[in-house]
Amino acid sequence: VTSKGASIRDLRLKMFRAAGGEGDLLLLSEYEPGRRSLTIRDRAAAGGDSGLDQVSWHVDEARTRPPRVAAFYHARGDGVVFRKTIEIRADYLLGGTLSVTNGTARPLELTVEMAAAAGVASETLPGEALDLRHMAGVAARLDAGKWKLESGVAPGSVVAEPKEIAAENLRWAGTADKYFAAVLAFEGWEEWLRAVNFEPIRDGGRMR
How much is the pLDDT for 158? Predict the structure, then answer.
């Protein structure tokens, strides 16, 4: 975890055992300098990006609980304060919260874009040829009590273009490979969610 963008720099599975031996398996990484998981952007800001994903946030000492909870805040300068937590939960899932405090005298209209699982690394083992056949964007809807899975976009396909899916009844979305999936579940965010965008990244076979 890094204070730069209050985000995840990389995520590794420790002591992963494979035919070639045991070691760390990289699951998430920066897909280009400064592009990390759980960064946010204010799309309504001047120029379409307030730089919230690039600036260094302050560590919220009162709410940080090492080694499992990291809390951050960023004051925008006009009275608006963003707060974010990233937590390693007891069930080994990553949890997180995002809140905005409006300290101005006017109503605040805010459209935030969050990068969920940015830079998902292919599960190709060392020494093997890059295999993207199983990597794809996935999402799940709960409709009339039934789960419905949707496939987003696969960078291993002949044509890999960005894709947007509607947020109606959406419960989680992210990226899946052959054995692992990195998804963002919207706990209590459903009414605020507008859409999910999948962006294939051809560099190294990763996906945002």
Answer: 39
